[in-house]
Write a structure and sequence with these properties.
Length: 420
């Protein structure tokens, strides 16, 4: 392992706001206003789910687009379950008792589902050329919810493309913005004596592209530079992800709008594979594939992971290998920058907590202007292993925790980079 310093950067949604990235509220609004209607109503199915989730929920302010995505994921689990007992255990924890309202099943079909030869009509009675024929021995309800979930994920990809689209012929990235210049300057400074291991929870290649523009080579799990040369999609270099910890990297822990799903067939077994495409990859071009996560239960395979069942999707390469690399990097880091991340994913938090427990020299630098407003201090208290190590205010926007092992800057990334 290289003797250079080791820097880990973890970027959440707040890190890309200066580049005009969408807020959670923007995505919430888009999802609730998109898709098809409940049968016989002007209410969108996503809005219907949102309202059902809010009913009787004391923490309804925490319900957002990921909550809605999670309902679709649960419905896919339900309809992929073969055992009546499994179906019952799933349905008891969901929104609909004693049975699903037929009004949300706004589809019909042409053909014979019993012979696995049919095409859905969505909405009911309407032919739609983008809806594929079924050929996976799936019940119509399963294909219906897989298709709807894919469409919602595509809507999110459109929003991300508005600020992060980047191909040979066109780019929406503002290379001349103050934020881009500050980020490039910061990375150049870190690169002089450190290995930079970047991990993002966003669905873009923004920081990878900015570094490549500044002649800093960065591996993103696929063998390419600023642009993707392979027109048919690049397969991930899994061996490099799990073995090379001495290169600068940029890994999308929850996927990317550039990641697509291809199906390979080996020994008559179909297997979905994640590939990196030249441009954003939309589900309209792909059959909605699933993988078994338990016997008789499936989840949708997508180039981006959202909702609350992220761990289900993380079993697919290269998600699994990138998360393994994140664990290892945190355990070996000198500093971990956590920027614009609201501490909302337990699997990410666990890696940070483990690093603090076993890596006695690591420092964590949190940058988030909404840290106090969003009560992130209560979440952070879980990081202290039950010891009484309180917060110490150094200035109006700088606080330390755990005897100085955690540094909290309650400012945005741009202001932070100006003063670093």
């Amino acid at each position: 392992m290289s003797k250079k310093g080791r820097i880990v950067c973890l970027f959440g949604a707040g890190a890309v706001m200066p580049w005009q990235a969408p807020s959670t509220d923007d995505i919430d609004r888009l999802i609730r206003e998109s898709g098809i209607n409940v049968k016989g109503s002007n209410t969108k199915i996503s809005e219907y789910f949102f309202n059902k989730l809010k009913e009787g929920d004391e923490n309804s302010k925490d319900i957002n687009f990921e909550s809605i995505i999670n309902v679709f994921e649960e419905l896919i689990l339900y309809y992929s379950s073969r055992s009546p007992k499994e179906k019952k255990s799933l349905i008891n924890g969901m929104l609909f008792e004693p049975k699903f309202p037929e009004s949300i099943l706004n589809f019909s079909y042409k053909g014979n589902p019993n012979k696995n030869s049919y095409q859905l009509q969505i909405p009911e009675g309407v032919d739609n050329i983008i809806i594929p024929y079924s050929y996976r021995n799936e019940v119509p309800e399963l294909l219906y919810f897989k298709f709807l979930l894919s469409l919602y994920l595509d809507q999110i990809k459109v929003l991300i493309s508005n600020y992060a689209y980047h191909t040979y012929g066109k780019s929406e990235i503002n290379f001349e913005s103050q934020s881009s210049k500050l980020f490039s300057k910061w990375m150049k400074s870190l690169n002089e004596s450190n290995i930079i291991r970047m991990y993002t929870l966003n669905y873009d290649r923004l920081f990878k592209v900015l570094m490549e523009r500044n002649k800093i080579s960065v591996f993103e799990g696929f063998d390419c530079g600023e642009y993707i040369p392979e027109p048919n999609g690049l397969k991930p270099n899994l061996m490099k992800i799990i073995n090379d910890f001495d290169c600068n990297c940029h890994y999308n822990l929850h996927g990317s709008i550039y990641w697509g799903v291809k199906t390979t067939v080996n020994y008559n077994l179909r297997k979905p594979v994640i590939v990196l495409n030249r441009g954003p990859s939309f589900s309209i071009n792909e059959y909605p594939e699933t993988i078994n996560i338990q016997t008789g239960k499936s989840t949708l395979v997508s180039g981006i992971i959202s909702g609350y069942n992220k761990l289900f999707g993380l079993s697919v390469p290269p998600f699994k290998q990138m998360h393994s690399a994140f664990d290892r990097d945190c355990l070996n880091a000198d500093k971990i920058y956590v920027i614009g991340y609201s501490l909302g994913d337990e699997h990410i938090n666990n890696s940070l907590i483990t690093a603090l427990e076993y890596n006695k020299n690591v420092e964590i630098i949190i940058v988030d202007p909404g840290f106090k407003k969003n009560n992130l201090d209560k979440i952070l208290q879980k990081f202290s292993f039950g010891n009484s190590r309180g917060f110490k205010d150094i200035s109006s926007n700088y606080t330390t925790y755990m005897n100085g092992r955690i540094h909290i800057h309650t400012i945005g990334i741009e202001e932070f980079m100006e003063n670093i």
